[in-house]
Amino acid sequence: MSSKTLSKAKGFKKSKTGTYLSIGTTAFGALGTLKQVKKARAEHDTLKLVDAVVSAAAIVTGIAILVRELKRIGDDDVLLG
User: Fold this and answer.
1) Which parts pass through the membrane (predicted)?
2) What confidence score (pLDDT) does residue 73 get?
3) Hey, how many other C-beta atoms are within 10 angstroms of the C-beta on 63?
4) What is the pLDDT of residue 15?
5) Cα separation of 68 and 73, whole Å?
6) How far is CA 45 from CA 31, 42, 53, 56, 67, in A?
7) Which of 77, 75, 64 is closest to 23 using CA atoms?
8) Could you say which of 28, 30, 52, 80 would form a disulfide bridge with 37 (CB–CB 3.0 to 4.6 Å)?
9) 11, 65 in Cβ contact below 8 A?
10) DSSP string, 11-70
11) Is the separation of the CB atoms in 11 and 79 below 8 Å?
């Protein structure tokens, strides 16, 4: 593996593609949280419901940070340069 290829691989996380992938995987994690909320409601378990709400807040915050990072990347995409 050449140095240039390795450098691109390390920069993937900071690329637009890497950021989109991170947004997608974070959003996919929301499905588990929704199931957790439904189960907590069905069981009338307040503590599990609070845990699910905190998890959902973390997911929303994570996506917001990733979207902000995506805006910052702009034309400086490491995979294109």
Assistant:
1) 20-37, 49-67
2) 82
3) 17
4) 81
5) 9
6) 19, 8, 12, 17, 33
7) 64
8) 52
9) no
10) HGGGSHHHHHHHHHHHHHHHHHHHHHHHHHHHHT-HHHHHHHHHHHHHHHHHHHHHHHHH
11) yes
Cα–Cα dist 1/46, whole Å:
52
Burial (CB count <10 Å: 0-12, 13-18, 19+), residue 77 = middle
Mean pLDDT, rounded, for 10-34: 84
Neighbours of 71 (CB within 10 A): 9
pLDDT of 75 strictly over 60: no
Task: Calculate mean pLDDT across residues 1-11.
Answer: 58
Amino acid letter, 38: K
Residue with the larger pLDDT of the pair 48 and 72: 48
- Whether the CA torsion 47, 52, 53, 55 is positive or negative: it is positive
Residue 30 makes CB contacts below 8 A (sequence gap 6+) with 56, 59
